Each structure stands twice: as C-alpha cells, then as structure tokens.
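Tokens for chain A. Residues wanted.
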C-alpha cells in the first residue's frame, strides 16, 4: 500500500501539534492551576492525564512496531474529549469560577483539544486498517510505516540503548494495565458514582 507524497509531512505535523496540545499545554496548565490553588481545574487535569497516558502507551507500542498501537492511538483520541466533559459536577464548578486568565486559558485549551481529538479520530479511521495486519507487513507498507517514524525518532533520542522489542513489551504491559483500570471504571465505579467525581 503506497502512501501519497504529502502524507509524511501531514503525519509529522500532526505529531508536533499533538505534542503541543496534549502534553505541553496541559502540563503548563496543571502547574499554573497548582500555583493558583485552583483545585477544580487541577482535578480535571489529573483525570485528563490519566486518560491521556494512553498516548504514551501508543508511542511505545509503535516503537515496537505493534499494530495494536493504531487502535490505542485512535481510542485515546476518543477518550480524551470524553474525559474533559464527562463530569457534571466539575463542569458546574468550573463554570461558576470567576473569570481569570487561568480559566480563560484552560477553557480555550479544553475546546481546542476537543476539536483536535474529534477531527483526528475522524481523519484516522482509514488508518485503522494498519491495526489488522501482521507487524512485519505493517512495517513494509509505507502507508502504515509513516506513522511509526516519529516514535522511532523518539526512541533514538531517549532510548537509544534499548531494543525496540523491549519498549514494545513495556507498551503491551502498560496497555493491559490501562484496559483493566478502564474496565474497572466502566463496569464498577461508573455505576456507583455516575457522572459525578464525588459520587453525590
């Protein structure tokens, strides 16, 4: 499966935007909220980071050339907007907060992240075909391999002495833990607390 000539630049741009929107901005906001003692924003950002950890897991799966990474990456784009808007009590508390620069920055980030993830999830639906082929075949197909190249560069920068297979295994272990925790939340905790963080 050949990839169009413009796809590599789009993929690399997407990774850069994802780094800014899903890592750098929420990290700055979390530190800012901590300094300002904005507990409700802190709370929602902590929930966000728990959910968004699936993006990190995806990077490690891609380093190990694991096709399931395409599913986990797509699922992260679906779960992140849900995590940002799911909690009724947090939404109400945030809306009742006085207008500050932190609240404006957080609201702007929350909306931009939601739009980015929804558009990204829709755009990546055709890429999901790469999740259902063997690892070697996935690497050999340029259309699928393009998505692996940024994580491979990440390995060269931060894990140069570690084998890709080892990092892929770490990704698998983390994915299993993530799925178990998500299943526990959906099938047990959600029924008890509903869409309220406090369960009230």
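Reply:
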């Amino acid at each position: 499966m050949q990839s169009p000539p413009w796809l590599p630049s789009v993929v690399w741009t997407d990774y850069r935007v994802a780094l800014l929107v899903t890592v750098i901005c929420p990290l700055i906001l979390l530190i800012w909220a901590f300094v300002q003692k904005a507990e409700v924003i802190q709370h929602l950002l902590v929930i966000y980071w728990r959910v968004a950890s699936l993006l990190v897991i995806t990077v490690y799966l891609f380093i190990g050339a694991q096709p399931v990474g395409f599913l986990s990456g797509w699922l992260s784009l679906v779960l992140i907007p849900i995590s940002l808007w799911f909690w009724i009590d947090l939404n109400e508390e945030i809306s009742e907060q006085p207008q500050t620069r932190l609240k404006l920055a957080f609201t702007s980030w929350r909306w931009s992240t939601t739009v980015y993830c929804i558009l990204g999830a829709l755009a990546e639906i055709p890429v999901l075909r790469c999740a259902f082929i063997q690892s070697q075949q996935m690497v050999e197909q340029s259309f699928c391999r393009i998505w692996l190249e940024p994580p491979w560069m990440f390995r060269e920068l931060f894990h140069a002495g570690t084998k890709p297979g080892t990092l892929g295994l770490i990704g698998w272990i983390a994915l299993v833990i993530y799925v178990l925790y998500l299943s526990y939340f959906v099938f047990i905790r959600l029924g008890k607390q509903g869409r309220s963080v406090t369960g009230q």
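The chain has nine helices and no strands. The chain has one domain: 7-193.
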